[in-house]
Structure formats: C-alpha cells, structure tokens
Amino acid sequence: MSRIPLFGAALAVAASLAFPTLANDAIRIEDAYFRMATPMAPNGAAFMIIHNDADTDDRLIDARSPIAKRVELHTHIDMGEGVMKMTHDEDGFEIPAHGSRALARGGDHVMFMGLIERPGDGESIPLTLVFEKAGEIVLEVPVDLERADGMGHGGHGHGAGGMGHGEGGMGHGEGGMSHGHGN
Predict the structure, then answer these.
(1) What is the domain range of residue 142?
(2) Considering the entire predicted model, what is its pTM?
(3) Does a structural domain hold residue 93?
(4) Which of 103, 133, 161, 166 is at 20 to 30 A from 150, Cα to Cα?
C-alpha cells in the first residue's frame, strides 16, 4: 500500500478537525467553539458562523445542551456610553437565504447558564441547534478557552445580521446581565 494515499487521507481528516463544518441539506455550521471566561465560571457561550444554502430564509429559534441548566440565544443591546446589555432574544436569529450569520463575542451567541459540567480546553460539548425550517442539528462543539478574538477568521459581516466583534468577558450572572466594553 502506498504511503501517499494514506498521508492524503490523514491530512484530510486533520483539516476537517481543524476547521469543522457541520451540515444538513440547507444549514452549515462553521468555526464553532465554546468557551468560558475562567475554568470555574458559572456560564459559558458558543460562537460560530451559520450558513444557509437554501432558497428561503431560516431562523435559529432554540438551542439545548445537557451541560447547563439553561441554554438561550442571546444578543447585545447598546445602552449608550459604552455599555452593552446582554439579553435573551426570544425571536431567535434570522439566517438569510444563501447568506450567513456570525454568532460572535460581543454580538449574538448561544449562552449556557448554570454550567453543570465545565469542559476543559480541547474537549467538546454537545449542542443541539433548532431551526424553524431546517429542524434540529446536533453538534459536538470544540472547547477553545484560549481564543482571544470573536471568530477564527477576520471580521465577518455576512448577510443580514453580520456581527461586529466586540470585546468583553462572559462573567454574566443570571440577573441583570450588563457589562461595559473597553474602547
């Protein structure tokens, strides 16, 4: 057996692990990761790019995971004077037809409140995303506690709702979830 095809297969597997893309017929999830501000933080968040290859808009309407007491779709509202308020977005996030939406730090994200498990860097967590039209997509999201920016790529402004990348930690309590952002 030649080593070249074996090396090529190993390289393909390594590339898929480094840049996971998960999909169903219409929705693709790219560059998903989970992080906590500190190893003992009570909360965490998942970030990703959601691509919609369908001819119609879809909407992320819910998220579930057994590692937290509550999992919600969150966004940030500018309260003025450099203060952003994180809030549950009950309407979910629209994913435009043939477009994408970034769930990024400082913007829309999947919030895990009351962590039951605290996974370590390099592990993965189960996450089910529920879409209005595409249905459920079950993911294993890698834990990346070291990532400093919002996404693994440069800035994203894909489709309707592309997010600017802010700064800030995730020390959000279950009460009034406000925090300031540095300039």
Answers:
(1) 20-180
(2) 0.70
(3) yes
(4) 133
